[in-house]
Protein backbone atom coordinates (compact mmCIF):
# COMPACT_ATOMS: atom_id res chain seq x y z
CA UNK A 1 0.00 0.00 0.00
CA UNK A 2 1.42 3.33 -1.04
CA UNK A 3 1.48 6.34 1.20
CA UNK A 4 -1.40 8.00 -0.62
CA UNK A 5 -3.66 4.98 -0.16
CA UNK A 6 -2.61 4.68 3.44
CA UNK A 7 -3.52 8.29 4.21
CA UNK A 8 -6.77 7.88 2.32
CA UNK A 9 -7.73 4.80 4.27
CA UNK A 10 -6.91 6.28 7.66
CA UNK A 11 -8.81 9.40 6.78
CA UNK A 12 -11.97 7.49 5.98
CA UNK A 13 -11.69 5.12 8.89
CA UNK A 14 -10.78 7.60 11.58
CA UNK A 15 -12.59 10.93 11.46
CA UNK A 16 -11.68 13.31 14.27
CA UNK A 17 -14.45 15.06 16.10
CA UNK A 18 -14.58 18.58 17.48
CA UNK A 19 -17.34 19.43 19.90
CA UNK A 20 -18.60 22.96 20.44
CA UNK A 21 -21.25 23.92 22.96
CA UNK A 22 -23.26 26.72 21.46
CA UNK A 23 -25.55 27.97 24.27
CA UNK A 24 -26.84 24.51 25.00
CA UNK A 25 -28.29 23.46 28.34
CA UNK A 26 -25.49 20.88 28.84
CA UNK A 27 -27.88 17.98 28.39
CA UNK A 28 -26.62 17.09 24.92
CA UNK A 29 -23.02 17.89 25.83
CA UNK A 30 -22.86 15.40 28.64
CA UNK A 31 -24.45 12.83 26.35
CA UNK A 32 -21.73 13.46 23.77
CA UNK A 33 -19.13 13.02 26.49
CA UNK A 34 -20.94 9.85 27.56
CA UNK A 35 -20.49 8.60 24.00
CA UNK A 36 -16.73 8.63 24.50
CA UNK A 37 -16.83 6.72 27.76
CA UNK A 38 -16.62 2.92 28.16
CA UNK A 39 -20.29 2.01 27.78
CA UNK A 40 -20.86 3.66 24.40
CA UNK A 41 -17.25 4.00 23.28
CA UNK A 42 -17.22 6.15 20.17
CA UNK A 43 -13.59 5.26 19.59
CA UNK A 44 -14.46 1.89 18.12
CA UNK A 45 -15.41 3.81 14.98
CA UNK A 46 -12.03 5.49 15.04
CA UNK A 47 -13.53 8.75 16.27
CA UNK A 48 -11.37 10.77 18.61
CA UNK A 49 -12.39 13.96 20.36
CA UNK A 50 -9.93 16.75 19.64
CA UNK A 51 -9.67 20.32 20.88
CA UNK A 52 -8.19 21.97 17.82
CA UNK A 53 -10.43 22.93 14.88
CA UNK A 54 -7.53 22.47 12.47
CA UNK A 55 -7.29 18.80 13.36
CA UNK A 56 -10.99 18.08 13.09
CA UNK A 57 -13.08 16.53 10.33
CA UNK A 58 -16.48 16.49 12.01
CA UNK A 59 -17.92 19.41 13.95
CA UNK A 60 -20.51 18.44 16.53
CA UNK A 61 -22.60 21.39 17.68
CA UNK A 62 -25.15 21.41 20.47
CA UNK A 63 -27.54 24.14 21.44
CA UNK A 64 -28.95 27.19 19.76
CA UNK A 65 -27.06 30.07 18.32
CA UNK A 66 -27.10 33.40 20.12
CA UNK A 67 -25.77 36.73 19.02
CA UNK A 68 -22.49 36.39 20.83
CA UNK A 69 -21.43 32.90 19.85
CA UNK A 70 -22.45 32.95 16.21
CA UNK A 71 -19.12 34.60 15.44
CA UNK A 72 -17.27 31.94 17.43
CA UNK A 73 -19.13 29.14 15.69
CA UNK A 74 -18.44 30.58 12.26
CA UNK A 75 -14.82 31.10 13.18
CA UNK A 76 -14.41 27.48 14.26
CA UNK A 77 -16.14 26.24 11.12
CA UNK A 78 -13.94 28.36 8.87
CA UNK A 79 -10.79 27.10 10.54
CA UNK A 80 -11.59 23.46 9.83
CA UNK A 81 -9.95 22.10 6.67
CA UNK A 82 -12.05 20.70 3.82
CA UNK A 83 -13.72 18.22 3.63
CA UNK A 84 -15.77 18.80 6.76
CA UNK A 85 -19.11 17.65 8.07
CA UNK A 86 -21.37 19.37 10.61
CA UNK A 87 -23.60 17.41 12.97
CA UNK A 88 -26.33 19.28 14.86
CA UNK A 89 -27.15 17.40 18.05
CA UNK A 90 -30.47 17.97 19.80
CA UNK A 91 -33.63 19.84 18.92
CA UNK A 92 -32.09 23.16 19.97
CA UNK A 93 -29.39 22.83 17.35
CA UNK A 94 -32.01 21.91 14.78
CA UNK A 95 -34.65 24.56 15.38
CA UNK A 96 -34.05 26.37 18.63
CA UNK A 97 -36.18 23.95 20.62
CA UNK A 98 -37.55 25.15 23.91
CA UNK A 99 -35.43 28.31 23.76
CA UNK A 100 -36.82 29.38 20.41
CA UNK A 101 -38.84 32.25 21.85
CA UNK A 102 -36.09 33.62 24.10
CA UNK A 103 -34.89 37.04 23.04
CA UNK A 104 -31.21 36.30 22.60
CA UNK A 105 -31.68 33.19 20.49
CA UNK A 106 -31.35 33.14 16.72
CA UNK A 107 -32.65 29.62 16.15
CA UNK A 108 -31.03 26.48 14.78
CA UNK A 109 -27.36 26.44 13.91
CA UNK A 110 -28.18 26.09 10.23
CA UNK A 111 -28.81 29.86 10.33
CA UNK A 112 -25.04 30.31 10.60
CA UNK A 113 -23.31 27.29 9.09
CA UNK A 114 -24.46 24.51 6.75
CA UNK A 115 -25.54 21.34 8.56
CA UNK A 116 -25.19 17.82 7.15
CA UNK A 117 -26.73 15.64 9.85
CA UNK A 118 -29.46 16.47 12.36
CA UNK A 119 -29.74 14.31 15.47
CA UNK A 120 -33.12 14.81 17.17
CA UNK A 121 -33.89 14.41 20.85
CA UNK A 122 -34.04 16.53 23.97
CA UNK A 123 -31.40 15.62 24.90
CA UNK A 124 -30.32 13.31 22.10
CA UNK A 125 -29.61 9.80 23.33
CA UNK A 126 -26.07 8.45 23.03
CA UNK A 127 -27.30 5.79 20.61
CA UNK A 128 -28.77 8.48 18.39
CA UNK A 129 -25.59 10.55 18.59
CA UNK A 130 -23.45 7.58 17.59
CA UNK A 131 -25.82 6.88 14.71
CA UNK A 132 -25.55 10.50 13.63
CA UNK A 133 -21.78 10.46 13.82
CA UNK A 134 -21.64 7.26 11.80
CA UNK A 135 -23.77 8.90 9.12
CA UNK A 136 -21.46 11.90 9.26
CA UNK A 137 -18.45 9.66 8.68
CA UNK A 138 -20.10 8.28 5.55
CA UNK A 139 -20.88 11.77 4.27
CA UNK A 140 -17.28 12.68 4.96
CA UNK A 141 -16.14 9.75 2.86
CA UNK A 142 -18.37 10.91 0.00
CA UNK A 143 -17.11 14.46 0.25
CA UNK A 144 -13.54 13.23 0.25
CA UNK A 145 -14.07 11.22 -2.88
CA UNK A 146 -15.77 14.14 -4.63
CA UNK A 147 -12.86 16.36 -3.68
CA UNK A 148 -10.43 13.85 -5.17
CA UNK A 149 -12.33 13.89 -8.45
CA UNK A 150 -12.36 17.67 -8.50
CA UNK A 151 -8.61 17.69 -8.05
CA UNK A 152 -8.18 15.31 -10.96
CA UNK A 153 -10.32 17.51 -13.19
CA UNK A 154 -8.33 20.57 -12.20
CA UNK A 155 -5.10 18.84 -13.07
CA UNK B 1 19.53 40.31 27.94
CA UNK B 2 16.76 42.66 26.93
CA UNK B 3 13.28 41.83 28.04
CA UNK B 4 10.51 43.51 26.19
CA UNK B 5 7.78 43.12 28.72
CA UNK B 6 7.10 40.62 31.41
CA UNK B 7 3.38 40.67 31.00
CA UNK B 8 1.41 38.98 28.30
CA UNK B 9 -2.28 38.30 27.88
CA UNK B 10 -3.49 34.82 27.14
CA UNK B 11 -7.06 34.07 26.14
CA UNK B 12 -8.58 30.94 27.66
CA UNK B 13 -11.63 29.60 25.86
CA UNK B 14 -14.42 29.88 24.76
CA UNK B 15 -13.62 26.69 22.86
CA UNK B 16 -11.11 24.86 25.04
CA UNK B 17 -10.33 21.14 25.25
CA UNK B 18 -10.89 20.82 29.00
CA UNK B 19 -14.09 22.80 29.04
CA UNK B 20 -17.29 21.20 27.95
CA UNK B 21 -18.83 24.64 28.08
CA UNK B 22 -17.83 27.97 26.68
CA UNK B 23 -16.36 30.43 29.16
CA UNK B 24 -13.78 32.98 28.23
CA UNK B 25 -11.06 34.16 30.58
CA UNK B 26 -8.55 36.81 29.74
CA UNK B 27 -5.47 35.89 31.75
CA UNK B 28 -2.68 38.39 32.23
CA UNK B 29 0.43 36.35 32.94
CA UNK B 30 3.88 37.31 34.13
CA UNK B 31 6.16 34.49 33.01
CA UNK B 32 4.15 31.50 34.26
CA UNK B 33 2.19 33.32 36.94
CA UNK B 34 -1.32 34.61 36.47
CA UNK B 35 -1.53 38.16 37.81
CA UNK B 36 -4.98 39.21 36.66
CA UNK B 37 -8.00 37.38 35.33
CA UNK B 38 -11.03 38.88 33.63
CA UNK B 39 -13.96 36.67 32.78
CA UNK B 40 -16.24 37.16 29.84
CA UNK B 41 -19.51 35.31 29.47
CA UNK B 42 -22.47 35.42 27.24
CA UNK B 43 -21.81 32.49 24.96
CA UNK B 44 -24.69 30.64 26.57
CA UNK B 45 -26.95 33.56 27.44
CA UNK B 46 -30.44 32.89 26.11
CA UNK B 47 -32.68 35.07 28.24
CA UNK B 48 -34.74 32.35 29.90
CA UNK B 49 -35.98 34.55 32.73
CA UNK B 50 -37.81 36.54 30.09
CA UNK B 51 -39.78 33.53 28.90
CA UNK B 52 -42.16 33.92 31.87
CA UNK B 53 -44.04 36.45 29.80
CA UNK B 54 -44.64 33.94 27.03
CA UNK B 55 -45.22 30.68 28.90
CA UNK B 56 -47.66 30.10 31.71
CA UNK B 57 -46.51 28.94 35.11
CA UNK B 58 -47.05 25.24 34.34
CA UNK B 59 -45.10 25.38 31.10
CA UNK B 60 -42.28 27.25 32.82
CA UNK B 61 -41.38 24.08 34.75
CA UNK B 62 -39.99 22.62 31.54
CA UNK B 63 -38.15 25.82 30.71
CA UNK B 64 -36.40 25.97 34.09
CA UNK B 65 -35.57 22.27 33.69
CA UNK B 66 -33.57 23.31 30.64
CA UNK B 67 -31.54 25.93 32.45
CA UNK B 68 -29.00 23.22 33.01
CA UNK B 69 -29.04 19.62 31.91
CA UNK B 70 -26.92 18.41 34.81
CA UNK B 71 -29.00 19.55 37.78
CA UNK B 72 -32.28 19.93 35.92
CA UNK B 73 -34.42 18.07 38.47
CA UNK B 74 -33.36 20.46 41.21
CA UNK B 75 -34.14 23.52 39.10
CA UNK B 76 -37.61 22.14 38.54
CA UNK B 77 -37.90 21.34 42.21
CA UNK B 78 -36.89 24.82 43.32
CA UNK B 79 -39.29 26.43 40.90
CA UNK B 80 -42.18 24.15 41.82
CA UNK B 81 -41.58 24.73 45.53
CA UNK B 82 -41.69 28.47 44.95
CA UNK B 83 -44.95 28.33 43.00
CA UNK B 84 -46.47 25.91 45.51
CA UNK B 85 -45.61 28.29 48.33
CA UNK B 86 -47.14 31.16 46.38
CA UNK B 87 -50.39 29.30 45.76
CA UNK B 88 -50.33 27.82 49.24
CA UNK B 89 -50.76 24.15 48.40
CA UNK B 90 -49.40 21.24 50.33
CA UNK B 91 -47.62 18.65 48.25
CA UNK B 92 -48.45 15.01 49.12
CA UNK B 93 -45.87 13.40 51.41
CA UNK B 94 -44.97 10.72 48.89
CA UNK B 95 -44.14 13.34 46.26
CA UNK B 96 -41.76 15.03 48.69
CA UNK B 97 -39.85 11.79 49.20
CA UNK B 98 -39.78 11.10 45.47
CA UNK B 99 -38.32 14.54 44.92
CA UNK B 100 -35.56 13.70 47.36
CA UNK B 101 -34.81 10.44 45.54
CA UNK B 102 -34.42 12.09 42.16
CA UNK B 103 -32.55 15.08 43.53
CA UNK B 104 -30.01 12.89 45.28
CA UNK B 105 -29.56 10.68 42.21
CA UNK B 106 -28.82 13.86 40.31
CA UNK B 107 -26.28 14.89 42.90
CA UNK B 108 -24.40 11.59 42.52
CA UNK B 109 -24.35 11.78 38.74
CA UNK B 110 -23.31 15.42 38.79
CA UNK B 111 -20.43 14.83 41.20
CA UNK B 112 -19.23 11.82 39.20
CA UNK B 113 -19.38 13.89 36.06
CA UNK B 114 -17.42 16.67 37.70
CA UNK B 115 -14.87 14.23 39.06
CA UNK B 116 -14.29 12.80 35.60
CA UNK B 117 -13.82 16.25 34.12
CA UNK B 118 -11.37 17.20 36.86
CA UNK B 119 -9.38 14.04 36.22
CA UNK B 120 -9.39 14.87 32.53
CA UNK B 121 -8.21 18.43 33.30
CA UNK B 122 -5.12 17.22 35.07
CA UNK B 123 -4.46 14.55 32.51
CA UNK B 124 -5.68 11.38 34.23
CA UNK B 125 -7.86 10.06 31.46
CA UNK B 126 -8.21 6.60 32.94
CA UNK B 127 -9.93 8.03 35.99
CA UNK B 128 -12.22 10.06 33.77
CA UNK B 129 -13.36 6.85 32.08
CA UNK B 130 -13.71 5.06 35.41
CA UNK B 131 -15.92 7.67 37.03
CA UNK B 132 -18.09 7.95 33.93
CA UNK B 133 -18.51 4.20 33.87
CA UNK B 134 -19.91 4.32 37.40
CA UNK B 135 -22.10 7.22 36.38
CA UNK B 136 -23.79 5.17 33.67
CA UNK B 137 -25.47 3.09 36.38
CA UNK B 138 -27.12 6.22 37.73
CA UNK B 139 -28.19 7.18 34.23
CA UNK B 140 -29.81 3.75 33.89
CA UNK B 141 -31.71 4.29 37.13
CA UNK B 142 -32.89 7.72 35.96
CA UNK B 143 -34.00 6.32 32.62
CA UNK B 144 -35.86 3.42 34.23
CA UNK B 145 -37.62 5.55 36.84
CA UNK B 146 -38.27 8.77 34.97
CA UNK B 147 -38.14 7.90 31.29
CA UNK B 148 -35.18 9.98 30.20
CA UNK B 149 -31.48 9.89 30.89
CA UNK B 150 -30.59 13.50 31.39
CA UNK B 151 -33.43 15.98 31.55
CA UNK B 152 -36.02 14.00 33.45
CA UNK B 153 -38.63 16.74 34.15
CA UNK B 154 -40.28 14.77 36.94
CA UNK B 155 -41.43 17.79 38.92
CA UNK B 156 -44.72 19.49 38.23
CA UNK B 157 -46.47 22.18 40.23
CA UNK B 158 -48.35 20.18 42.85
CA UNK B 159 -46.09 17.14 43.07
CA UNK B 160 -44.29 14.80 40.71
CA UNK B 161 -45.52 13.15 37.53
CA UNK B 162 -44.21 9.62 38.02
CA UNK B 163 -44.16 7.09 40.80
CA UNK B 164 -41.58 4.51 41.78
CA UNK B 165 -43.34 1.23 42.66
CA UNK B 166 -42.07 -1.32 45.17
CA UNK B 167 -40.52 -3.60 42.61
CA UNK B 168 -38.66 -0.76 40.96
CA UNK B 169 -37.54 0.57 44.32
CA UNK B 170 -36.03 -2.81 45.14
CA UNK B 171 -34.19 -2.90 41.82
CA UNK B 172 -33.04 0.68 42.39
CA UNK B 173 -31.52 -0.21 45.75
CA UNK B 174 -29.72 -3.19 44.21
CA UNK B 175 -28.26 -0.97 41.50
CA UNK B 176 -27.20 1.57 44.10
CA UNK B 177 -25.26 -1.13 45.89
CA UNK B 178 -23.17 -1.61 42.77
CA UNK B 179 -22.68 2.15 42.48
CA UNK B 180 -21.51 2.18 46.07
CA UNK B 181 -18.95 -0.53 45.32
CA UNK B 182 -17.64 1.56 42.44
CA UNK B 183 -17.52 4.66 44.59
CA UNK B 184 -15.49 2.87 47.24
CA UNK B 185 -12.96 2.02 44.55
CA UNK B 186 -12.95 5.66 43.50
CA UNK B 187 -12.51 6.86 47.06
CA UNK B 188 -9.50 4.59 47.45
CA UNK B 189 -7.91 6.14 44.38
CA UNK B 190 -8.63 9.69 45.55
CA UNK B 191 -7.16 9.04 48.99
CA UNK B 192 -3.99 7.26 47.85
CA UNK B 193 -3.11 8.42 44.39
CA UNK B 194 0.06 10.45 43.98
CA UNK B 195 -1.02 12.23 40.78
CA UNK B 196 -4.27 13.50 42.22
CA UNK B 197 -2.58 14.84 45.33
CA UNK B 198 0.17 16.50 43.30
CA UNK B 199 -2.35 18.35 41.18
CA UNK B 200 -4.88 19.29 43.84
CA UNK B 201 -3.35 19.66 47.30
CA UNK B 202 -2.70 23.31 48.06
CA UNK B 203 -4.17 24.49 44.75
CA UNK B 204 -6.81 27.20 44.90
CA UNK B 205 -6.82 27.73 48.64
CA UNK B 206 -9.84 29.61 49.91
CA UNK B 207 -9.81 30.53 53.57
CA UNK B 208 -12.91 30.13 55.72
CA UNK B 209 -13.58 33.87 55.95
CA UNK B 210 -12.95 34.46 52.27
CA UNK B 211 -15.27 31.66 51.23
CA UNK B 212 -17.99 33.04 53.50
CA UNK B 213 -17.64 36.65 52.48
CA UNK B 214 -17.27 35.97 48.75
CA UNK B 215 -20.68 34.36 48.98
CA UNK B 216 -19.40 30.93 47.92
CA UNK B 217 -21.93 28.12 48.09
CA UNK B 218 -22.02 24.34 48.06
CA UNK B 219 -18.86 22.20 48.11
CA UNK B 220 -16.71 25.29 47.49
CA UNK B 221 -17.93 26.71 50.77
CA UNK B 222 -18.01 23.44 52.71
CA UNK B 223 -14.51 22.56 51.51
CA UNK B 224 -13.35 25.64 53.40
CA UNK B 225 -14.95 24.55 56.65
CA UNK B 226 -18.29 26.39 56.66
CA UNK B 227 -21.13 23.96 57.37
CA UNK B 228 -23.86 25.58 55.30
CA UNK B 229 -26.14 23.21 53.44
CA UNK B 230 -29.62 24.30 52.39
CA UNK B 231 -30.94 20.76 52.86
CA UNK B 232 -30.70 21.22 56.61
CA UNK B 233 -33.52 23.78 56.37
CA UNK B 234 -35.74 20.76 55.75
CA UNK B 235 -37.46 21.51 52.46
CA UNK B 236 -39.11 18.59 50.64
CA UNK B 237 -38.62 15.56 52.90
CA UNK B 238 -35.13 16.43 54.12
CA UNK B 239 -36.55 17.39 57.50
CA UNK B 240 -37.41 13.73 58.18
CA UNK B 241 -34.10 12.31 56.97
CA UNK B 242 -30.95 11.91 58.96
CA UNK B 243 -27.83 13.61 57.64
CA UNK B 244 -25.11 16.13 58.46
CA UNK B 245 -23.49 18.63 56.08
CA UNK B 246 -20.15 17.30 54.78
CA UNK B 247 -17.34 19.63 55.80
CA UNK B 248 -13.59 19.67 55.15
CA UNK B 249 -11.32 22.36 56.51
CA UNK B 250 -8.32 22.65 54.18
CA UNK B 251 -10.06 24.84 51.62
CA UNK B 252 -8.03 23.63 48.64
CA UNK B 253 -9.05 21.70 45.54
CA UNK B 254 -8.30 18.41 47.28
CA UNK B 255 -10.63 19.28 50.17
CA UNK B 256 -13.39 20.14 47.73
CA UNK B 257 -12.82 16.83 45.95
CA UNK B 258 -13.12 14.96 49.23
CA UNK B 259 -16.30 16.88 50.07
CA UNK B 260 -17.85 15.79 46.80
CA UNK B 261 -16.74 12.18 47.17
CA UNK B 262 -18.19 12.03 50.68
CA UNK B 263 -21.37 13.71 49.48
CA UNK B 264 -21.89 10.92 46.98
CA UNK B 265 -21.94 8.36 49.80
CA UNK B 266 -24.24 10.65 51.74
CA UNK B 267 -26.58 10.88 48.74
CA UNK B 268 -26.73 7.10 48.40
CA UNK B 269 -27.62 6.93 52.07
CA UNK B 270 -30.30 9.59 51.61
CA UNK B 271 -31.85 7.73 48.69
CA UNK B 272 -31.98 4.56 50.79
CA UNK B 273 -33.54 6.40 53.71
CA UNK B 274 -36.08 8.14 51.48
CA UNK B 275 -37.16 4.91 49.82
CA UNK B 276 -37.50 3.14 53.14
CA UNK B 277 -39.46 5.94 54.81
CA UNK B 278 -41.63 6.76 51.82
CA UNK B 279 -45.35 6.66 52.74
CA UNK B 280 -48.04 5.39 50.39
CA UNK B 281 -50.42 7.79 48.77
CA UNK B 282 -51.02 10.33 46.04
CA UNK B 283 -48.11 11.79 44.11
CA UNK B 284 -49.65 15.06 43.01
CA UNK B 285 -52.56 17.40 43.64
CA UNK B 286 -54.63 19.43 41.21
CA UNK B 287 -53.65 23.06 40.85
CA UNK B 288 -55.96 25.98 40.01
CA UNK B 289 -55.14 27.63 36.68
CA UNK B 290 -54.63 31.11 38.10
CA UNK B 291 -51.96 32.36 40.46
CA UNK B 292 -52.56 34.65 43.45
CA UNK B 293 -50.53 37.84 43.74
CA UNK B 294 -47.38 37.78 45.82
CA UNK B 295 -43.66 37.15 45.88
CA UNK B 296 -41.69 34.17 47.16
CA UNK B 297 -38.03 33.25 47.63
CA UNK B 298 -36.97 29.60 47.73
CA UNK B 299 -33.57 28.08 48.06
CA UNK B 300 -32.57 24.53 47.17
CA UNK B 301 -29.23 22.78 47.55
CA UNK B 302 -27.96 21.74 44.16
CA UNK B 303 -24.82 19.69 43.49
CA UNK B 304 -22.93 22.95 43.03
CA UNK B 305 -24.54 24.74 45.92
CA UNK B 306 -27.58 26.71 46.80
CA UNK B 307 -29.84 27.97 44.06
CA UNK B 308 -31.97 31.02 44.74
CA UNK B 309 -35.37 31.47 43.12
CA UNK B 310 -37.37 34.64 43.36
CA UNK B 311 -40.82 34.72 41.80
CA UNK B 312 -43.31 37.53 41.69
CA UNK B 313 -46.85 37.35 40.48
CA UNK B 314 -49.71 39.79 40.29
CA UNK B 315 -52.34 37.19 39.45
CA UNK B 316 -53.18 35.49 36.18
CA UNK B 317 -51.46 32.63 34.43
CA UNK B 318 -48.03 34.16 33.96
CA UNK B 319 -45.50 35.20 36.53
CA UNK B 320 -44.32 38.80 36.48
CA UNK B 321 -40.72 38.10 37.26
CA UNK B 322 -38.58 35.06 37.74
CA UNK B 323 -35.09 35.58 39.05
CA UNK B 324 -32.63 32.75 39.40
CA UNK B 325 -29.29 33.10 41.17
CA UNK B 326 -27.48 29.90 40.34
CA UNK B 327 -24.67 28.41 42.45
CA UNK B 328 -21.93 28.98 39.86
CA UNK B 329 -22.89 32.64 39.67
CA UNK B 330 -22.21 32.88 43.40
CA UNK B 331 -18.96 30.92 43.18
CA UNK B 332 -17.44 32.97 40.39
CA UNK B 333 -16.31 35.67 42.80
CA UNK B 334 -14.25 33.04 44.62
CA UNK B 335 -12.79 31.84 41.33
CA UNK B 336 -11.74 35.38 40.44
CA UNK B 337 -10.09 35.58 43.84
CA UNK B 338 -8.24 32.26 43.39
CA UNK B 339 -6.90 32.81 39.88
CA UNK B 340 -4.37 35.63 40.47
CA UNK B 341 -1.19 34.14 41.87
CA UNK B 342 -1.66 30.68 40.41
CA UNK B 343 0.44 29.21 37.62
CA UNK B 344 -0.89 28.95 34.12
CA UNK B 345 -0.84 25.15 34.21
CA UNK B 346 -3.22 25.16 37.16
CA UNK B 347 -5.86 27.33 35.52
CA UNK B 348 -7.93 24.40 34.14
CA UNK B 349 -7.94 22.76 37.58
CA UNK B 350 -8.90 26.04 39.24
CA UNK B 351 -11.74 26.65 36.82
CA UNK B 352 -13.06 23.15 37.46
CA UNK B 353 -12.64 23.32 41.23
CA UNK B 354 -15.81 25.36 41.64
CA UNK B 355 -17.63 22.92 39.33
CA UNK B 356 -18.67 25.63 36.91
CA UNK B 357 -21.97 25.33 35.14
CA UNK B 358 -21.95 28.15 32.64
CA UNK B 359 -25.32 27.23 31.27
CA UNK B 360 -26.79 27.88 34.73
CA UNK B 361 -24.85 31.07 35.20
CA UNK B 362 -26.02 32.78 32.07
CA UNK B 363 -29.49 31.31 31.73
CA UNK C 1 -44.08 36.30 51.16
CA UNK C 2 -40.84 38.08 51.80
CA UNK C 3 -40.05 40.72 54.35
CA UNK C 4 -38.24 43.66 52.95
CA UNK C 5 -37.82 47.21 54.16
CA UNK C 6 -37.35 50.22 51.98
CA UNK C 7 -34.23 52.34 52.14
CA UNK C 8 -33.14 55.39 50.16
CA UNK C 9 -30.65 55.11 47.31
CA UNK C 10 -27.89 57.02 49.12
CA UNK C 11 -28.18 54.73 52.15
CA UNK C 12 -27.35 51.55 50.25
CA UNK C 13 -23.64 51.59 51.07
CA UNK C 14 -24.32 52.28 54.74
CA UNK C 15 -26.77 49.39 54.94
CA UNK C 16 -24.43 47.01 53.13
CA UNK C 17 -21.63 47.99 55.49
CA UNK C 18 -23.91 47.22 58.42
CA UNK C 19 -24.59 43.72 57.10
CA UNK C 20 -20.92 43.18 56.30
CA UNK C 21 -19.86 44.15 59.80
CA UNK C 22 -22.46 41.90 61.36
CA UNK C 23 -21.26 38.81 59.52
CA UNK C 24 -23.95 38.49 56.90
CA UNK C 25 -23.27 36.68 53.66
CA UNK C 26 -24.23 38.30 50.39
CA UNK C 27 -26.83 36.26 48.55
CA UNK C 28 -27.99 38.29 45.59
CA UNK C 29 -29.66 41.36 44.20
CA UNK C 30 -32.89 41.16 42.27
CA UNK C 31 -34.06 43.86 39.95
CA UNK C 32 -37.62 44.33 38.83
CA UNK C 33 -39.72 46.99 37.29
CA UNK C 34 -42.57 48.57 39.21
CA UNK C 35 -44.67 51.53 38.03
CA UNK C 36 -42.02 53.06 35.82
CA UNK C 37 -39.33 52.68 38.46
CA UNK C 38 -36.74 50.02 39.14
CA UNK C 39 -36.91 48.11 42.37
CA UNK C 40 -33.71 46.45 43.49
CA UNK C 41 -33.97 43.93 46.30
CA UNK C 42 -30.76 43.20 48.20
CA UNK C 43 -30.67 39.85 49.95
CA UNK C 44 -28.29 38.84 52.74
CA UNK C 45 -28.11 35.72 54.84
CA UNK C 46 -26.93 34.70 58.26
CA UNK C 47 -27.57 31.30 59.79
CA UNK C 48 -30.10 30.37 57.09
CA UNK C 49 -32.16 33.52 57.80
CA UNK C 50 -32.62 35.88 54.88
CA UNK C 51 -32.64 39.64 55.35
CA UNK C 52 -33.85 41.87 52.57
CA UNK C 53 -33.96 45.55 51.86
CA UNK C 54 -35.02 47.26 48.68
CA UNK C 55 -34.61 50.57 46.94
CA UNK C 56 -36.66 52.30 44.30
CA UNK C 57 -34.54 53.82 41.59
CA UNK C 58 -35.63 56.43 39.07
CA UNK C 59 -34.56 55.59 35.53
CA UNK C 60 -32.11 58.49 35.37
CA UNK C 61 -30.56 57.84 38.78
CA UNK C 62 -27.19 56.22 39.39
CA UNK C 63 -27.01 53.54 42.05
CA UNK C 64 -23.96 53.25 44.30
CA UNK C 65 -22.39 49.83 43.87
CA UNK C 66 -21.68 47.65 46.89
CA UNK C 67 -19.08 45.60 45.04
CA UNK C 68 -16.30 47.36 46.96
CA UNK C 69 -17.83 46.06 50.18
CA UNK C 70 -19.08 42.68 48.97
CA UNK C 71 -16.92 41.62 46.01
CA UNK C 72 -19.53 38.98 45.22
CA UNK C 73 -21.99 41.71 44.23
CA UNK C 74 -19.81 42.57 41.24
CA UNK C 75 -21.31 40.13 38.77
CA UNK C 76 -24.91 40.61 39.72
CA UNK C 77 -24.60 44.39 39.53
CA UNK C 78 -23.04 44.13 36.11
CA UNK C 79 -25.87 41.84 35.10
CA UNK C 80 -28.52 44.31 36.26
CA UNK C 81 -26.69 47.15 34.56
CA UNK C 82 -26.68 45.19 31.36
CA UNK C 83 -30.10 43.62 31.28
CA UNK C 84 -32.09 46.47 32.83
CA UNK C 85 -29.99 49.48 32.08
CA UNK C 86 -29.69 50.67 35.68
CA UNK C 87 -26.40 52.52 35.98
CA UNK C 88 -24.12 51.57 38.86
CA UNK C 89 -21.27 53.78 39.99
CA UNK C 90 -18.04 52.64 41.66
CA UNK C 91 -18.16 49.10 40.30
CA UNK C 92 -15.06 47.03 41.12
CA UNK C 93 -14.90 45.89 37.49
CA UNK C 94 -17.22 47.54 35.00
CA UNK C 95 -17.98 45.31 32.02
CA UNK C 96 -19.77 48.22 30.33
CA UNK C 97 -22.72 46.16 29.22
CA UNK C 98 -20.66 43.41 27.63
CA UNK C 99 -20.89 40.75 30.33
CA UNK C 100 -23.63 38.65 28.79
CA UNK C 101 -24.47 40.37 25.56
CA UNK C 102 -22.12 40.85 22.67
CA UNK C 103 -21.59 44.04 20.71
CA UNK C 104 -24.18 43.03 18.16
CA UNK C 105 -26.73 41.50 20.51
CA UNK C 106 -30.21 42.95 20.78
CA UNK C 107 -30.84 45.25 23.70
CA UNK C 108 -32.33 43.17 26.48
CA UNK C 109 -36.10 43.59 26.58
CA UNK C 110 -36.12 42.79 30.30
CA UNK C 111 -37.16 46.34 31.11
CA UNK C 112 -39.65 48.41 29.21
CA UNK C 113 -38.03 51.60 30.44
CA UNK C 114 -35.23 52.40 28.07
CA UNK C 115 -32.39 54.39 29.45
CA UNK C 116 -29.10 52.85 28.59
CA UNK C 117 -28.57 52.21 24.94
CA UNK C 118 -25.04 50.95 24.70
CA UNK C 119 -22.93 53.94 23.73
CA UNK C 120 -21.24 52.14 20.90
CA UNK C 121 -23.29 53.62 18.11
CA UNK C 122 -20.72 52.99 15.41
CA UNK C 123 -20.42 49.30 16.29
CA UNK C 124 -24.13 48.63 16.66
CA UNK C 125 -25.94 47.29 13.65
TrEMBL record, chain A:
Secretion signal, residue range per the UniProt entry: none
Keywords from the UniProt entry: 4Fe-4S, Iron, Iron-sulfur, Metal-binding, NAD, Oxidoreductase
Gene3D superfamilies on file: 3.40.50.12280
Catalytic activity, EC: 1.6.5.3
SUPFAM superfamilies: HydA/Nqo6-like (SSF56770)
One Pfam family cited in the UniProt record for this chain: Oxidored_q6
Cofactor: [4Fe-4S] cluster
Keyword set includes Glycosyltransferase: no
Top EC category: oxidoreductase
Keyword Protein transport applies: no
Family: Belongs to the complex I 20 kDa subunit family.
Name of protein: NADH-quinone oxidoreductase, B subunit
